[in-house]
Amino acid sequence: MIGLRQILRLVTINVVLVRHGLDEIVLRTHLLRPVRFVLYLLPWNWVRRTQPPRAVRLRRALEDLGPIFIKFGQLLSTRRDLLQEDIADELASLQDRVPPFPGEKAAVIVRQELGRPVEEIFSEFVREPLASASIAQVHAARLADGREVVVKVVRPEIEKTIRRDVSLLRLVAELAHRYWPAVRRLNPREVVAEYEKTIIDELDLLREAASASQLRRNFEGSDLLHVPEVHWEYTRRRVMVMERISGIPVSNVDALVDAGVDLRVLAERGVEIFFTQLTHHNFFHADMHPGNIFVDRTHPARPSYIAVDFGIMGSLSDQDQRYLAENLLAFFNRDYRRVAELHVESRWVPADTRIDEFEAAIRAVCEPIFDRPLKEISFGRVLVQLFSTTRRFHMEVQPQLVLLQKTLLNIEGLGRQLYPELDLWETAKPFLERWIRGKIGTRGLIRELGRQAPRWGETLPALPGIAYETMKLVRSGRIEVSIRSDALDGLRTEMRRGNRRIVQAVIGTALIIAASVVLSLGTQHLASLWGAPIWTWVLGGAGGCLVLAALLDGD
């Protein structure tokens, strides 16, 4: 049920929207649409007001509403193909220019986490933040040995704010699941649960530091991606100290052009980095908005990337990797029937789905995007169109793949800004083919055999003894095979009910017969001794009730 806290939060959200002149958004909601005329009755709408542009008002409202809304704005800002230009430009400032909290508070948090004031830890600590985002902000500092670092500090009281908004999301998801059948295939409760786990993990900078170290090892010796070094001795749950990097923000295309950076190579290398993370490492940066990505200008002809902010990382299970690899292989071969079959096999659509109809629906959406440059297609629109088309097949959202889908949208948004002529298919195909061969080809089989060899080495010597003991149990009749299924469980339940009805009927019949015998004997010999009429009705009534109960149970 909705609680007082959720009601107050909903009221707060609407008050913030109205305060920023976004009354129309509030009154566009389904619940309030019948009373939209109220918009013209609000006193502040009776006179002409000078207001900031709508994009500025929207950005300010998202900032006031907190981290979850800011992250939503960050995701939208990467999709300029889906937004009007003024809104996309304004939301881009949410990537690293969220209003900061005071530097003195950051110094207090550092002292609380590290046990010493900043003056004892750093030879220099700049109170004015370098960048400020929804979860944390970053300060420039210098270690005692002269190395330049950045200090990332989690916002005070941010966890309380996030948990409050997530509880509201859970409520909305529960209501949507319960009262809106068309939304159930979106798995709103599972998606919110996955998002809650992701964003709560993002508050733990120890976890982020571990992810950064892992990603740094993965690309060690590569000129594709540089990951800053973590200084573990100064890293705690709310504070992280890392190497300070220098680069051009990937969104500053003019600066990249002025530095002589080859944008086509830069875009291709960005695709290569992502698919290397996905296919080779199975560990990918899942928050690749422009505020977290920089470009090293040292070698303009072969530019490399610099990544920051590792709070959201993704990986896939072996089963999801295999199904994804097979789907991509069939997709690149335009084998839409195999794509449809794989969706049924993986239970992403119901088992009774007609393969031929589902195949035709997928072909209608996907076929037009082949052999076209990135500027002429939009994965965002393709995903929306695909999901809309497959609604009638009850295709469900896979919560474990949401991070991957979000990252793909970010990658496409970056590629579109850097080099719209990029042929995404040709760039990605070699990496995907190698991955597919490694997963479902001969090399994949050999790798799996090698992975399982140690366990088999332990198990194989014991197999003859296990087989001998099993045969002895079979011969002695002491082995019992247990088979469980929903159908068998239902059959067993029905048999038990049937047996119970038979027993009840037999007992009831016996009691009726007994009552008849007592009645017969009582009227002749035992009336005065046993009170036959009373026992007759008691026994007969009990027997009749049992028979009736057995018959009703059968219905």
Short summary of the structure?
The protein has helices at 4-19, 23-27, 54-65, 67-77, 85-91, 103-114, 118-121, 158-179, 188-201, 205-218, 253-258, 263-281, 318-332, 336-345, 355-366, 379-389, 402-418, 424-440, 442-459, 463-476, 486-530, 532-554, and strands at 122-125, 131-132, 136-143, 148-154, 225-226, 239-243, 248-249, 284-285, 293-296, 304-307, 313-314. It is α+β, with helices and mostly antiparallel strands.
Description:
This protein has 555 residues and is α+β, with helices and mostly antiparallel strands. The protein has 22 helices and eleven strands. Strands 1, 2, 3, 4 and 6 form a five-stranded antiparallel sheet that branches. Strands 5-10-9-7 form a four-stranded mixed sheet. Strand 3 and strand 4 form a beta hairpin. Helix 3 (54-65) packs across helix 4 (67-77) and helix 13 crosses helix 18 (424-440). It is globular and about 80 Å long. Mean pLDDT is 76; it is low at 517-555.
